[in-house]
Amino acid sequence: MSRQEPLVWIVENVGSGPGSRETLVCAQLLGSDPRLARLDEDRLGPYSPGVFAKALGALIASGSRERKSRSTVVLLPHTYQVAEFAPRLALLLGAAYIPSISGVHRDGEGGLRFRRSILQARLEAEVRPRARTIVATVQSGAFSSDETPAPPRQVVEVCLPADMEPRPEREILGREAASAGGVDLAGAERIVTAGRGVGGADQVSVAADLAAALDAELGASRPVVDNGWLPREHQVGSSGHLVAPKLYVALGVSGSIQHLMGMSGSRVIVAVNTDPEAPIFSLAHYGIVGDLHDVAPALTGLLNERAGR
Ligand SMILES: Cc1cc2nc3c(=O)[nH]c(=O)nc-3n(C[C@H](O)[C@H](O)[C@H](O)COP(=O)(O)OP(=O)(O)OC[C@H]3O[C@@H](n4cnc5c(N)ncnc54)[C@H](O)[C@@H]3O)c2cc1C
Question: How buried is 52 (Cβ within 10 angstroms: 0-12 exposed, 13-18 middle, 19+ buried)?
C-alpha cells in the first residue's frame, strides 16, 4: 500500500436511509478530499443490485485508472441495500471487501488498517487490505463528530455506462412503508431504553415517562421485546436498530455485547443499574448504581418541573 493518500469515494445511495454523515467522518480520517458518487433511481432505473454495482463500478474504475499510483477506498453506509450490492461491486473492481467497519487508521508505514467486529461482536479484528482498491461499508454510529463535516467538493451522479443495458435481474413488485409505529430510533437525538430490569410490561411506563420528559425515543433490549413488553421496532442491538444518539439512557440494561453493538456509538451514555458490576458501566459516561424505579421517576419529575409541566 502506498504512503500516498488514497483516492476516497463516498457513495450516497439516495433514498436508502441514514449513514452518509458517518462515511464522511470516516473519509476525513483518511485525510483526503473525498469524491461523492450519488446513486439515484431517477437516473439508474428501479433499484437492482447488479445494475447499481455495475454502474458504480464503471465510475470507480475510471477514477482509479486516472490515478494509478494511488490506492482507492470506496466507502458506503452499511444499510440493508448496500450490504446487498457492495460485495458485487468489490468483485467487479477486484477489490478487498471489508464490511461494517468501525474504525480506520494508518500503520507506521502509512498502510491502511480497518477495524470491524467479528463473531457476533465478541472480537474486534484489525484488517489490512492487500488489494489496491478497497470497498468498505461503514457501521452506523461508529464514526461520530461534534462538527458537521464539510460536504465533498466533487459530486458525481452515477449514470449507466453507454455500453450497458439496464437489465435488472429481478423486479420489485411494490413498496410499502414498514410499520415502525412512529418509532425513529436511527434518527433519534435522544433515546431512553428499557432493559429487562424494568421488571415487566406494566412497568415499561417508567422508561416511557422519562423518554417523554426528555423528548426522546423509547428503546428496548431484546428480552423486553421477546417478552412482548414492547414491539420489535423498539429493539436496539445487533439484531435490532443500530443507533448513535447524542444521549442514550439505559435503564436496567446489563450491557451484553449484542446490546452494546447497537448503541456504543452514542455520544453520552447514562446507565442506571442496581448491579455495580454490570458491563454497561464500562461504557457509560455517567453511571448510577441504584433502583431504576427510584432514579427514573426522580429524573422525570425534575425534568418536568424544570419545563413547567
Ligand atoms: C444472536 C443474538 C442476537 C442478540 N441481539 C440482541 C439485540 O439486538 N439487542 C439486545 O438487547 N440483546 C440482544 N441479544 C440478547 C443479549 O445477549 C442479552 O441477553 C440482552 O441484551 C440482555 O438484555 P437486558 O440487559 O435487558 O437484560 P439482562 O441481561 O437480564 O439485564 C437486566 C439488568 O437489569 C438490572 N436490574 C434489575 N432490576 C433493576 C432495577 N430495579 N433497577 C436497575 N437495574 C436493575 C440487572 O442488574 C441487570 O444488569 C442477542 C443475543 C443473541 C444470541
Answer: buried
Would you say residue 121 has pLDDT above 70? no
Residue 197 near residue 273, CB atoms below 8 Å: yes
Q: Are residues 31 and 152 in the same domain?
A: yes
Number of independent structural domains in the chain: 2
Given the CA of residue 293, which atom of ligand 1 is nearest to it?
A: 41
Do residues 215 and 148 share a domain?
A: no
Ligand 1 site, residue 262, Cβ cutoff 6 A = yes
| Number of Cβ within a 10 Å radius of residue 111 | 15
Looking at per-residue pLDDT, the higher value among 243 and 194 belongs to 194
- State whether 119 and 224 are in the same domain: no
According to DSSP H, which parts of 45-167 are helical? 49-66, 80-93
Q: Which domain holds residue 254?
A: 190-306
Pocket test for ligand 1, best of 226, 259, 261, 281 (most atoms within 8 A of CB): 259
Say whether both 225 and 109 belong to one domain: no
Ligand 1 binding pocket includes 221 (Cβ within 6 Å): yes
- 16 shares a domain with 151: yes
Question: pLDDT, tens digit, for every residue of 227-272?
Answer: 999 999 999 998 888 888 999 999 999 999 889 988 988 889 999 9
For residue 253 and ligand 1, the question of a CB distance below 6 A is answered with: yes
Average pLDDT over residues 195-204: 97
